[in-house]
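Reply to dn_fold:

You asked what the input looked like. This is it:
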Amino acid sequence: MRNRWFHLGVLLLALGALGTAQAVDLQGPTEMGRCYLPMFTVTFTAGAQTASAIAFTVTRPNAGFSYVVSTGAFILPDGTIVEAEPTSSSGLNVIWNVDLILGFSYELPPGETITLEFGLLTGCGTISGTLDARVDWVETVPRYLTDSQPVQILPGAVLIYKVPTVVQAAVGDVITWTLI
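and this is what came back:
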């Protein structure tokens, strides 16, 4: 009888370990205007093993989106916030290498989470696209996960002013306004 309970316990432990899966979650607005600065987050949760050599790569939807200097930050599992400027960029990719930013070989314990926050500015001629996030790390072998979301650029509001605002006129007079 004790053997059955032992095997049942081992099975439950194994199933629990399988339940601790790595995850990457990209969050931010899916609709925004032009000339707008929204904040985004990418959250990485380690699986059943310690994750090391962690790197976040964000692929901007198009050249109309720009990373905004000084908006990057990591939130570590203990709540510590660390300023995090990208360590490199190439084309539309913006990359944050956790070890280079922290200055040491960081290890994310099993089941713990590290979050990257950053701002992307939309240019005044930006078009819609898809924002992609990828997190690379090493457990016993290199691994990666991705997430993405559409970002729709909404047409801006148009303000129309007439000049002059008041025109002296009588019934039947032709008047002219300039619309700005």
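Residues 1-19 have pLDDT under 50 and may be disordered.
Hope that clears it up.
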